[in-house]
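User: Here's a chain of 418 residues. Predict its fold as tokens.
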Amino acid sequence: MTRDDLDADVLKAVRHAAWTRQAFYALVLAVALVGQVTGAAQTLDVPLIIAVPAVATLELGGVVLMADADVRRRLGERALASRILSAAIAAGAAAFNWAAHPDHLLGGFYAAMSALGYLVWLIHAGNQRRDRLRATGNLPPAPPAYEVIGHWLRHPAITLRARTIAKAEGLDLYDSLRHARAAATRERRNAAIAKVLHRKIRAALDTTSADIAVRVYDLDEVAARLTATADYNELTNLLATDLTPGRIITADNANYRRWLSREGHAPAPRAPVPRSFPSSPSSRLRAATADDERQVLEPEPDCNPVPDPKDDHSQQAESRSSVPPQAVPAAAEATGAEGRNTAGDDEVPEVPRETREAVAYWLRREPNIEPKRIAERIGKSLRSVYRYLPPDYPRRPGIARKRTRRHPGRERPNGQGE
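Assistant: Prediction complete.
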């Protein structure tokens, strides 16, 4: 069907509705008159020749007031007096029909017919008034019919805004919804821009200047220029860097360690697990001798003065000389720091033995590893690990970034390391 056919069909439906409505008014008026005449004749003992014109005059007065109120409202007036008086006459007629009949069921029927006629007329008069206002441009066109579940229940705020936009701009269903979503997004964006702009200007000048700037500058224009200068390639690279598997695993480990520190639990260090070798009689003898020596009381300090710890390497050399070479094999020192047995692995990278190379090796494998973990894995002290870290690597408070020179002849306190 074309648009002309639809318009012709609408005009035909309007004419049919008008004829049906006129017949309805005639029947309702007749039933209401019968009820009022019989009620007046039975209750008030009024002759029919007097009751019929009296009741007809009452009904006609209500109709005249309703028509007058409709005309005055079409002219732009509110016509409150005519509307109130016509409503009072209709209510009085309905109440008389109910009270004048001894059988209240029959009286209720007559009263309902009187009220029904009046209400139908009010609805029809309101429709005609809205049509006239739309034709003169004083009332917006009818908004689209939105879905109850898909629109009103799921997105009530967006649907209400879309209905308002459709009435103001004459849009259809989907255009109004699209404009409503765009308006909501624009409001959130402008609010965020205004917040940042206000904070920066307030930090540079004062609060009053920040308020003026937020209200003077066109935030839509600011947002358009920000969109024009946005670097999507760099933003994509930034997100891609954070989403690499290695970075995610490292961040997860760091979050777990922070959670342990907040809960008051110290993370257990991963101790190297050496391989088990069959012990020889000589090694058992040396272990028993070492246990006997540890049970001996320590001598007096003035009898055995403590040597000056000038270097970490001297302490590590002494510790390595006191431990039997069979206790920690080279393979366990290289791969046992992770707590795994790598005897069956075909391609296992060997950890360098030098401190500098070992630190660089673990930094290449895990860029965000903690210095304490490096020290545990390579079997060195934490101070030695800090010596070979890059200058920009985050350090623990109290640790110097560069090794300070020792002045000649200046001795350190007993027991203080580098």
